[in-house]
């Protein structure tokens, strides 16, 4: 039993955990031929994972678990069911008993999912606690119910049911796998659409046995996103946007097939590189930015400046940008160092709220009473 598993003993079982199963979601009276997954997730927007259901287990496949990685599959066996006899590639696939009772979260994007699914009680470990912005999670860490982890030894000693990686590969993971600790990648950042990233709530649902709740949560998010996009479509001419930032002498702008470009489009905006086929970021020189986007009305960035005067000191050329001169620079990064960035935590799981912020930045006339969730306008001084 992983660290903190006993914390679930006092939790009331959801409706999904009843019906021939114990309070943990385990099968109490196994009957051959019965379908123990009456609620099944349908994946509509995400392209980097799939879920296949059998009667007593699921097959979760992540197409690209990390950049350049080959597809990985995991067999999620309902607790209390007999061990499935599998052949081929699945014969050697990692097996995870679900619902899990202990999760180590290697990515902050895991955290709001557990909150939304009402399964925060399974969280027993977080990586880099100082980067966490979700209040319920910070309280859990401060209460000692979730430990901060980094080295493989910490994880092995705690023996969680599963470690969710951050969508990258680490040499320490080989050690964990040899120790029998499954490592499931959180690779939603490989999705190019906001709703595709948000749909990874269904991966967490597969691990925690909350498919029905996940469907309801995602449907509300999807509906809210579409309503905001429909409002943006009424704005008429797209607002010219400058996106990205300077880093080590080059300006990083979102490619035409990227997540940020999709948000800009859906919020009624455009940028000069919106038609350039690229899933990630493009690098261009400052002079190119000045020529192509120097007149953009809005600059959306993640610079942590407290004021625009601070930005001007960093590089006087910023003053040549219209958005900078007109005080229309917006950042998703808090000005205080050492705090979590909610945009890269809850923002990933709530694209409806992010899109509402984008619409208010690009078309404030459509959102006169909007209260920003993730962005702040950087003051002049």
Description:
With 381 residues, the chain is an alpha/beta fold. It folds into two domains: 5-218, Nitrogenase molybdenum iron protein domain (Rossmann fold, 3-Layer(aba) Sandwich), CATH 3.40.50.1980; 235-377, 3-Layer(aba) Sandwich (Rossmann fold). The protein is built from 13 helices and 17 strands. The chain has helices at residues 110-116, 135-142, 152-158, 171-178, 194-198, 201-208, 211-233, 259-266, 286-293, 308-314, 322-325, 346-349, 351-362; strands at 49-53, 57-62, 72-78, 95-98, 103-105, 123-127, 147-149, 162-165, 183-185, 239-243, 245-247, 250-254, 269-270, 281-284, 298-301, 329-331, 376-377. It has a five-stranded parallel β-sheet, with helices on both faces. It has a five-stranded mixed β-sheet with strand order 13-10-15-16-17. β11 (245-247) and β12 (250-254) form a beta hairpin.
